[in-house]
Every structure is written in structure tokens, then in C-alpha cells.
Amino acid sequence: MSDVPHTVRRPGPRLPRTGRLLLVALLCVLAVLAVLLLPRLLRGQPERTLTVPEGQRATQIYAAADKALHLPAGSTAKAAKRTHLPLPAEAKGNPEGYLFPATYPISSDTTPASLLTYMVKTAKERLAADGISSYRTVLIASIVQAEADRPADMGKVARVIDNRLAHHMPLQMDSTINYALGRSTLHTSHADTRTKSPYNTYRYPGLPPTPIDNPGADALKAAGAPPAGDWLYFVTVKPGDTRFTADYQKHLRNVREFNEAAAGRR
């Protein structure tokens, strides 16, 4: 037996029981977070969003998508032409009217084609939920969206459109001329009404060939089920004051009042 004394190993300091429990709980929480978040990170968790306002035209949405995706200008417009989108046959591949206004997630793997497809599928789902299957209804809704001063007027605007079509009257909607000319204004000149474009509803009878923007839910519902009424004319004299009538002479008086109010604002 050696006379050298044995080294006594003393145990190190131990965490109090409460501390050990907190550590275990923390590790459990981290494990759960890892299980939940890792698959999302691997799929490409949305980093940002793109909001499409009601009434925007396809060209505006394409430009916004290019910025959101950090792509050269024109990239989304090109994708719209070469991507087979789930559109009705009447659309002839043109997604105008079917890029539904909403907020869309943008992730690292989002492409112009996938984003446009998501928008069109969202439109089809919303239209189906409201019982709307007609391309004509979407087209009318796009005019309603552009012409109505407020949601409360949308049903009456839709009824005016239906009534004018039923009476074989030209629609004479300034919004369709604005679309033809690529602009947005409240003032339409006589020269504008002579524009040789199928979107000029002063010159050509019936509806324009495609929607003129991407309408929201209120405009779509208004176009799908407009209220009863004999209105044939309307003019927004001032914000919140849109006047509807079936009397042409009364309409002319309303237009004069609009022109006077517009002159006073200049």
C-alpha cells in the first residue's frame, strides 16, 4: 500500500433544481421551434409581400411585381405572354381582369409565372365563391370599378351599363377611353371620343374586348347582381355625389353642374 494519499475528486457545483428545470424547458422549446421552422425555411419562407389594389391595370401589376421580385422592368409582362394561365377561353390568354386584388406572399423561389398563376387561381376561387362564371360579368365589373365613385354606387353603375346595352346605346364610358390611351383622367375631350380603338365605347357599340382593370369583390358582386332601376345616365358632380337618372335633360343639367364645379376647382 502506497503512503501517497489518494486525490479526492470533489463534485463541481450543481445547478439548483429550479435552474435545471428551466434549462430543460428551454431546450424543449428550442427543439419544438426547430421542428416547426426548419421545414418552412427549407421551402422558402415568405420574405415580403406584394399588394394589388382594386382597379389596378395589368401593366401596373406587372411593374409592381418586377420591383417586388427585383427583376428587370418588363420581366413579368413577358412571363404573362408565355405562361399558360388558367384563364377562361374568352380571355384569349390575357389575364386582365383576373389578377385578383389581394396581398400575395413573395419568397425566394417566387417567379413571375408562379405569382401570376397564384393571382389567377385566387380570382377563380373568389368568383366561384360568389357564383360568378361569366367573362362578361368580370368585364362589366372592371368598368364599374373604374367608374364608381364609391362602393355604394357600384350596383347602380352596373345597372346603367346593363340598361344601355339592352337599349343598344353606346356605353360612352370615359374609363374605357382612358384604358385605350393608357392614362387616368376625369376629363375627356371630343378628340378623345374619336379615338380609333375598340376600347372607345363612344365610337363603338357594346362592351370593350377585354376588362379594363382588375376589379375587387364589391365591383364583381355589383356586376353579378345589380339592383333594379331604369337609370341610363350618371355623373359624379363631386366626391360622394353621383347622380343617376333616366332623363337625358336632367342628365345634361347634372353635367353642367359637374363642369361648373370642375372649373371652380382649377
Describe the structure.
The structure is a single chain. The chain is built from 9 helices and 4 strands; from the N terminus they run H-E-H-H-E-H-H-H-H-H-E-E-H. The protein has 266 residues and is mostly helical. It has 2 domains: 49-130, no CATH class; 136-264, no CATH class. A two-stranded antiparallel ribbon has the order 1-2. A two-stranded antiparallel ribbon has the order 3-4. The protein is elongated. It starts with 16 loop residues before the first helix and ends with a helix. Residues 1-10 have low confidence and may be disordered.
Keywords summarizing the entry:
two-stranded antiparallel sheet; two-stranded antiparallel ribbon; disordered N terminus; mainly alpha; 9 helices; elongated; 266 residues
